[in-house]
Amino acid sequence: MARQVEIWNDRAEIASRALLLCQLAYDEAIAKSERFTLVAAGGSTPRILYELLAKKDWDWSKVHVFWGDERYVPVTDPLSNEGMTRKAWLDLVAIPVENIHAVPTDADEPAIAAARYEQHIQEFFGISEGEFPQFDLVLLGMGDDGHTASLFPHTKALKVSDHLVTVGEKDGQPRITMTVPLINQAKEIIFMIEGAAKAKALKAVLAPNGDVNQYPSRLITGNTIWLCDRTAMNQKQA
């Protein structure tokens, strides 16, 4: 699949470029199917993008928002990806409540929550068990350790290929995450990477060869656009 790498000066430029790509993806999806499916990510750079999306004059009745991963916390928790996305974007636009497809974090066990979210995605797309749907756009970030979504180095979630959603973990804390094959199936995937702390992992992820278990973002091999700032690419600003 195609991989495109773009270098920008800072997170503001990355967010502006991502906004344009979101608009193009929205226009194409609405023209083809009258529906736009977007998978949101957590993090500070996506938050800036969401603040820009909140100003868009889209037909929000045709926009459906999912999450690529979520901490196992209530939406009111400051660490909740859903909570951040709502405050920066979704609570500020006229999107129908049924178009917000949140990860359930109120189940007794994370495995139950993962199964419920998988079933919800299957029902939304009208697919059978074993099939993988195609989201119009998936937004991703990357951690200093090379993880993306909640696909952390040397964890069982990296090897799950027969489910849409699984349980990830970070420092013993459970996460709910979309799986590698589901993410890779998307029409377009946008990585937003900024900061010098990401430079080592980014170099390893973008290298021709490398260890996918050490740097899980290497597993994302779909139609990707990497929006990186100069410090992450270890380049000085001109």
From TrEMBL:
<comment type="similarity">
    <text>Belongs to the glucosamine/galactosamine-6-phosphate isomerase family. 6-phosphogluconolactonase subfamily.</text>
</comment>
<dbReference type="GO" id="GO:0017057">
    <property type="term" value="F:6-phosphogluconolactonase activity"/>
</dbReference>
<dbReference type="InterPro" id="IPR005900">
    <property type="entry name" value="6-phosphogluconolactonase_DevB"/>
</dbReference>
<keyword id="KW-0378">Hydrolase</keyword>
<dbReference type="InterPro" id="IPR037171">
    <property type="entry name" value="NagB/RpiA_transferase-like"/>
</dbReference>
<dbReference type="InterPro" id="IPR039104">
    <property type="entry name" value="6PGL"/>
</dbReference>
<comment type="pathway">
    <text>Carbohydrate degradation; pentose phosphate pathway; D-ribulose 5-phosphate from D-glucose 6-phosphate (oxidative stage): step 2/3.</text>
</comment>
<comment type="function">
    <text>Hydrolysis of 6-phosphogluconolactone to 6-phosphogluconate.</text>
</comment>
<dbReference type="Pfam" id="PF01182">
    <property type="entry name" value="Glucosamine_iso"/>
</dbReference>
<dbReference type="GO" id="GO:0006098">
    <property type="term" value="P:pentose-phosphate shunt"/>
</dbReference>
<protein>
    <recommendedName>
        <fullName>6-phosphogluconolactonase</fullName>
        <ecNumber>3.1.1.31</ecNumber>
    </recommendedName>
</protein>
<feature type="domain" description="Glucosamine/galactosamine-6-phosphate isomerase">
    <location>
        <begin position="10"/>
        <end position="226"/>
    </location>
</feature>
<dbReference type="GO" id="GO:0005975">
    <property type="term" value="P:carbohydrate metabolic process"/>
</dbReference>
<dbReference type="InterPro" id="IPR006148">
    <property type="entry name" value="Glc/Gal-6P_isomerase"/>
</dbReference>
